[in-house]
Automatic annotation (TrEMBL):
Residues 775-785 have a biased composition (Polar residues). The chain crosses the membrane at residues 27-49, 70-92, 98-119, 262-286, 306-329, 667-689, 695-715. Pfam families: E1-E2_ATPase, Hydrolase. The gene is atp7b. This is P-type Cu(+) transporter. It comes from Nothobranchius furzeri. Keywords: ATP-binding, Copper, Copper transport, Ion transport, Membrane, Metal-binding, Nucleotide-binding, Translocase, Transmembrane, Transmembrane helix, Transport. GO terms for biological process: copper ion export; copper ion import; intracellular copper ion homeostasis. It comes from the Eukaryota.
Amino acid sequence: MGLMIYMMVMDSQHKEHGGSMPEEQNVLPGLSLLNLAFFLLCTPVQIFGGRYFYIQAYRSLKHHIANMDVLIVLATSIAYIYSCTVLIVAMVERASQSPVTFFDTPPMLFVFIALGRWLEHVAKSKTSEALAKLMSLQAIDATVVTLGPDHFIISEEQVVVELVQRGDIVKVGPGGKFPVDGKVIEGSSMADESLITGEPMPVSKKVGSLVIAGSINAHGALLVEATHVGAETTLSQIVKLVEEAQTSKAPIQQFADRLSGYFVPFIVFVSLLTLVAWLAVGFVDFDVVKKNFPGYNQNISKAEVIVRFAFQASITVLSIACPCSLGLATPTAVMVGTGVGAQNGILIKGGEPLEMAHKINVVMFDKTGTITNGAPQVTRVLVLWEMARMPLRMILALVGTAEASSEHPLGMAVAKYCKDELDSDVLGYCRDFQAVPGCGISCWVSNVEHLLHQSEEHFFLAGATTDESSLLATGEQTPTAEGTSYSVLIGNREWMRRNGHHIKADVDAAMSSHEIKGQTAILVAINGVLCAMLAIADTVKAESALAVHTLNSMGIEVVMITGDNKRTAKAIAAQVGIRKVFAEVLPSHKVAKVQELQERGLRVAMVGDGVNDSPALACADVGVAIGTGTDVAIEAADIVLIRNDLLDVVASIELSKKTVHRIRINFIFALIYNLLGIPVAAGVFMPAGLVLQPWMGSAAMAASSVSVVLSSLLLRMYQKTSVELYESRARGQMRSLRSSQISAYQGLGSQRHSPAVLKVARDQVGQNPEAPPGTGSSVNPGQEQNHYSLQDYHVASDLNVL
């Protein structure tokens, strides 16, 4: 663009003005119809469309910073002012032809840059929509009750949730949403808090337990005393944390801005130097200026000729330094880079995450649903053959039928496992089903005979390590008569003891060996006899350990941060090779940990999938959400992994490196042609007869633009590193860690926090002195949630005989 403007300036000094429009098409002498239309269309865009850029450029210069906005304003202003100037000169001199103008350049540059920024803004603004959607999931009304003696309900009133005050008593029925944070004063039930905590397991609620607004009550009616209402609820605090993180997150200074910070002052300096040099040369040796001044007229004074010539050379240098292709350098690379990322299952929201990802020093992983699959699975079945004398197939048929009636995630996991192993979607008949929260279930099961007559050969092809002859034996206690009913009990130790079963030391030791690893162990009793033990766990994703090892090999520190308990977190960390763990943390704790690392000068990436992760995702330098996660987490993040593959975290860093490298090459292509033209434009080679010709300007402008676009398109050749290559690099180096090799911290630990974060943390801890939100998925053996708590630890699936 600058070289074309130079051509225009040089031609305008001639009487003919270098015009391109025939005289008969001129509206006025020197003013063509096309130039008039260009002027009328360009002027509103220059004034109103460029207003934002002028304001931003002014603010940057006010703070002594020359960023990309300053360069854009410089380029468009020169193009517009020069076009107006030469047009006015042509009209004053009544030229026969209208001069070449560049009124089309400012609108093109403004629209292209503004479009890229608008698309990025739209991607970020969706977070607010997701937060609004999250808030809309809260209960809109509540049943406020008045209590008499012994908690007798005197009256009930249905009110909108905004009218509930602290201290009010709220009644929540089965399946209802808790309208406020509060404390249970009567009743017992289970609550699904996965929307808030990210942990999939329901949490047992009894008198004294704390509940979270927005969570769902399961089967029991509860009376809850409101402790936090309105903006004080946990959900509202999470939303507040996300919004504060977004507004306080410092904008990343992109490479174009940094380049402009050096480039603009340099060009202004060269332009002024050219002005001073030609003024000096002109007054010392006027013949040099006279010889090279186009259209020299002796009627013009010597001083005026020198000044006009010096200013012409100076402004031409300034205009050359502002090429149109500079505005294409970053957007084209970002567009291609994000497109390549999408093809590989990685959604990247704009140029900032692309630029920042390759600078990451620390990656923080959430546990449930990120490192693990986020759903419980049966990992072991231990048959107590000496006690039960019952075939494994019979046990699975009865257990699967019983748990098929359960709505609990662990029960559904057991039922699914039994159906898969039995290769049947239709199980037996269950009656008199009873579920006791925190303990287990009991029922009567019949009509399972059809499951026992299927091919035993097919059943034992699952890779089991059982004593097949023992399991296939049939004894006196294995009736197969049609219509036989079986009494089935499934639950924890307490449930078995309540029903009169004695747990032997070897069985208790087998259960403890799983529980100490973070698994859930449950017992099965059929017709009054203990028959089996099942171990259930949230298993680790197949690629988690490889992803952690690859990040470590890249020099990136990997940390796990989770709301789950310390024992479970360490068990998962040992499997995947993570040496630093923060357990039992609140959403505000995650934000505080991110901020602490950032204060130490580290670049932090947060990888998560839940609502409780969204504040940390928004606060981190790069937030990475799992594609199967919640809407709020996905919208709060900068990068979304569509394929739910943690190796894509590595791929996004690699793609970032490639894209940033390509952007830098683009800037070289955008500037090199014009920088080479600066000494020619400054008149350095005029004494040698070398001046800029029109074809040089056209060629430079076209070459720079084409070079930038072609350079960006080369990004399409990027291929994501294959899993096989990662595995070959890691072969022989990946090992599970011992517990002593893992540094585990509970809650906030020893880190420092800002007062605002500490206040939110205190508010949330105050709501639950028993266990902070986010720890409900797993508890230690013997606590109220022992049986139905998800203890995350993965072992190879096997079937053993004790």
